[in-house]
Specification:
The protein has eleven helices and twelve strands. It is an alpha/beta fold. It is globular and about 65 Å long.
Length: about 350
């Protein structure tokens, strides 16, 4: 099993994933969206999962917390949260964990929130179900939570419907719902989708502040390496359903090993770049996971690829430069080599 932390003891790990695969049945055949992933997250730490659309990052995060529809899906391997097995567990058992121990901030608050119910009632609902609060106490707590996530005039906003709030306020409501019952583990799945740049920064700063205050363990899912740079302790880069690079955040940015990760970094706009600088991009497109290529899945798009890359899939291995820096590449960058 592969760790994202510095040799933690089992008791320190709130999330333990071992050889997890998630496969969907489609009209074209089986599609493996998560392919044999293993990782651990130490209590109180944050892991950024990064990759292009279709890389498997959202399916992985939802697999870990059991939030995928069971139809047309098959899962193998193991995922535990606080020692509770998630894979293969009945829905009624998972309900005992959701909200109270595990929570999620979804991509689009307009679809995640019920449009016909007042936002205060939606926050209070989880308090009444999970913490068995009275209606009066849940209402008061909901207003306090709105105040905690920085929504002005919380008493008035609690009576509003989602369409009466801005996108940033709706996402703050989603955060209030997520933290309402005091979970230990939080998944934030692209939490700033559709928001303008200023509001994105405010929402991310709020999540980071709340996580540190409550010592929450967190997964932050994003396509933007810039987002995880200052907000996570460790980063896992995904491509074609696999983790292809994994390291402490500072180490990853200092010495990238995987060409795909380098491509993601190079394609991130830089504020200090001259005006009209042409944005870099990764040539080609992600592979068809119903008919994946042989060898390394990134080889068709990789300028460093050689014959071996097209026939032999690389394993995730530790670097000789840092045992906590893992990569899946036959020809890594920046002096990395696989430990023997």
């Amino acid at each position: 099993m592969t760790n994202v932390t510095d040799s933690p003891t089992q008791a320190d790990n709130i999330v333990v994933v071992e050889n997890l695969s998630t496969t969907f049945s489609t009209p074209r055949g089986s599609l493996t969206a998560v392919n044999n992933v293993s990782l651990t997250i130490k209590r109180g730490m944050s892991l950024g999962i990064v990759g292009e659309s279709g890389s498997g990052k959202t399916v992985l995060s939802r697999s870990i917390i059991g939030l995928l529809p069971p139809s047309n899906m098959n899962q193998t391997g193991s995922a535990t949260i606080n020692g509770n097995q998630i894979i293969g567990v009945a829905h009624k058992e998972l309900l005992k964990l959701w909200g109270s121990e595990v929570a999620m901030i979804f991509q689009d608050p307009m679809t995640a929130l019920t449009p016909t119910r007042r936002v205060g009632d939606q926050i209070a609902e989880s308090l009444r179900i999970n913490l068995k609060m009275s209606k009066k106490d849940a209402k008061a707590k909901a207003i306090d939570l709105l105040r905690q996530v920085g929504i002005p005039s919380p008493e008035r906003r609690a009576r509003a419907y989602p369409n009466q709030l801005s996108g940033g306020m709706r996402q703050r409501v989603m955060i209030a719902i997520a933290i309402a019952c005091g979970p230990e583990f939080l998944v934030a799945d692209e939490p700033t989708t559709g928001l303008d740049v200023t509001v994105q920064a405010q929402v991310l700063d709020l999540i980071t502040e709340l996580r540190r205050e409550a010592n929450l363990t967190m997964i932050l899912v994003t396509h933007d390496l810039g987002v995880v740079a200052t907000r996570t302790d460790n980063v896992a880069v995904m491509y074609a359903g696999r983790i292809v690079e994994q390291a402490p955040t500072r180490e990853l940015f200092a010495r990238v090993a995987m060409p795909y990760t380098k491509g993601l970094l190079d394609s991130t706009p830089r504020i200090d770049a001259p005006s009209h600088t042409r944005l870099s991009s990764i040539e080609g497109r992600p592979p068809d996971l119903v008919n994946p290529p042989s060898g390394c899945a990134f080889a068709p798009r990789c300028s460093f690829a050689q014959d071996r890359c097209r026939t032999e899939a690389p394993s995730l291995v530790a670097s000789t430069l840092n045992p906590n820096h893992l990569f899946a590449c036959h020809y890594p960058l920046n002096g990395h080599a696989a430990q023997q």
